[in-house]
Amino acid sequence: MFTQTDRSAWICGGEIQCREQPAEVGRAYHLILLGPPGVGKGTQAELLCSRLGTCHLSTGDVFRAAKDAEDHQCSPAIRTALEAMRRGDLVSDDTVIDMVRERAACLKCRIGFLLDGFPRTVEQAMALDSLLTDLNLDLDGVLSYELDIDAIVDRLSGRRTCEHCGAVYHVAARKPIVDGVCDHCSGALVQREDDRPESIRVRMAAYEEKTRPLSDYYREAGKLVSVSAVGTAEAIFARALQTLGV
Ligand code: AMP
After folding, report:
1. Which band of pLDDT confidence, cut at 50, 70 and 90, is reported for residue 3?
2. Would you say the CB of residue 192 lies under 6 angstroms from ligand 1?
3. Predicted TM-score of the model (pTM)
4. If you classify domain 8-147+223-244 with CATH, what class do you get?
């Protein structure tokens, strides 16, 4: 199975093409992942993409990559987002929506998409709906991973992320072959700034207030697929595939 690792188009926007393209594509899935921070979405995204052949599109990854990018590599919406972040402000719905609109070519890509971190608010979801209608695309489902808060705190404090390719590990549950080194690209594994306890509390509060209503939004639209996030990554993955009917 082809696994997309180059995401130049998603990072840069516009007409930029990814360097790697699969020769053959099966069905193009159009999926959204929902769930609080620490529920294991990054790991599930990796597993789903390698099984379904879709491209993992994470707005958080785009922002992290943009921080290290040259100014001329950044699209107009990315520049606005970076300015907001430098001021210590949240990135506004309008800016994130503009950023996704600049990447319409990615949404139409023949390998499909798995959106992660977007939409984050009902306003973003409504904007995405109208963009998908314009592009004549329909969502296959919105996978919503459910887990109680104590288990989430446990998982987050042990999470380590590759600073080069973004692959996600856990100090106990998903160890790399060599301690502190990414299995895929040999990049260094670090604890993300926003996985530290004080950041976790802020992110959980923001999630409850702004993102929970998304579950209701997609339930009403008949798109919500609830998946229990209890157990190992492999067990959760098997549950998601079964629920999706893949
Ligand atoms: P994540 O990796 O999804 O946790 O995203 C990391 C950070 O990027 C978040 O804490 C936000 O500041 C920003 N971000 C990512 N996606 C969005 C979005 N859809 N709307 C607003 N901010 C976002």
Report:
1. low
2. no
3. 0.82
4. alpha beta
